[in-house]
Design a protein that fits this description.
Blueprint (H helix, E strand, L loop, with lengths): L4 H10 L1 E4 L5 H10 L11 E3 L5 E5 L6 H6 L3 H11 L3 E9 L9 E4 L2 H7 L7 E7 L10 E3 L17 H4 L2 H4 L19 H11 L2 E2 L7 E5 L4 E3 L10 E8 L28
Antiparallel strand pairs: 1-9, 2-3, 3-4, 4-11, 5-10, 6-9, 6-11, 7-8, 7-10
This protein binds ligand 6CS and fe (iii) ion.
Fe (iii) ion binds next to loops.
């Protein structure tokens, strides 16, 4: 299912595009029932919240054929190819669980700094596809985005040096635990005065949607999500597609395969 030129233009203008009813009720319940098959005890792919609840399940496609098939369906891959303008492969794939009453926040950040500095990906030619597996709104931690913020490139980090001061960060990057990129206290967050200035200018959009809603968003867009204070889970699948001509260059201390795939074979859609 290809995007219309109006949808493509809206994505280019805003940095995101929300498609309601992209997956059917039966597709979503099939995916939900498959989640237990993606969880391997004590696997580094499973990231826990401080309270012990599962926060993220990385690379679910490595243990589940169902999630592997999902990443190759036309209605996800074709829009990604249209938005990137090249054939794509999967850079990163995860299920972000926001378990009711336990799922924690994602502070305001851009994704591309992690893929640029930790993985050595040179250009922001990536698109993340977020699929809601439950009805999602502001109460249970929907994705919040600041329109047009993707046009600013990588902005200054809060409490951290600016990207220029990182210099050859990738070369000097100590292979610390990767948790500072994955937990509820992530290392590259947006400097607060910049966040305030851009939020005042462009507003904040809460991407609410029923199960089956899909949000396509740019690697440089400012985004965040609140903790889930409701008793209702907010499971979301995130597939990040990258241009096959924009592969990771960090060969010195690459992150593990489940965070940064080196299988850059272009995806051929299943029907
Ligand atoms: O480090 C990463 O690749 C992950 N971390 C964040 C905060 N967003 C992008 C990505 O999922
Ligand atoms: Fe993110």
């Amino acid at each position: 299912m290809k995007l219309t030129s109006d949808q493509i233009n809206r994505y280019k203008r805003d940095g995101f595009l929300i498609l309601n009813d992209c997956l059917s009720e039966s597709e979503v319940s099939f995916l939900l029932s498959e989640i237990p098959n993606t969880i391997e005890k004590d696997s580094p792919r499973i990231i826990l919240e401080d309270n012990g609840a599962i926060r993220s399940i990385f690379a679910p496609h490595t243990t589940s054929k169902i999630f592997d098939n999902l990443s190759k369906i036309e209605k996800l891959v074709q829009p990604a190819e249209q938005l990137i303008g090249n054939p794509v492969y999967i850079h990163q794939y995860k299920i972000n669980r926001k378990i009711g009453l336990k799922g924690d926040r994602w502070e305001w950040h851009q994704d591309f700094p992690y893929w640029h500095l930790d993985d050595g990906i040179l250009a922001p030619e990536l698109v993340s596809v977020m699929i809601y597996l439950q009805d999602t709104d502001a109460s249970n931690g929907a994705l919040m985005l600041i329109p047009k913020s993707h046009e600013l490139g990588i902005v200054k980090f809060e409490h951290k040096e600016s990207i220029e001061q990182f210099g050859n960060y990738v070369d000097n990057f100590k292979s610390e635990s990767h948790l500072s990129s994955l937990n509820s206290n992530i290392k590259f967050t947006i400097e607060h005065s910049i966040l305030k200035q851009i939020a005042e200018k462009n507003g904040i959009v809460t991407a609410s949607g029923q199960k089956g809603t899909v949000v396509f968003f740019h690697g440089n867009i400012f985004h965040a999500s609140n903790m889930n204070i409701t008793p209702f889970d907010r499971d979301a699948v995130l597939i990040t597609y990258n241009s096959i001509y924009n592969q990771p260059q960090n060969k010195k201390n690459p992150r593990p395969e489940y965070l940064c795939s080196t299988n850059c074979t272009p995806i051929s859609c299943n029907s």
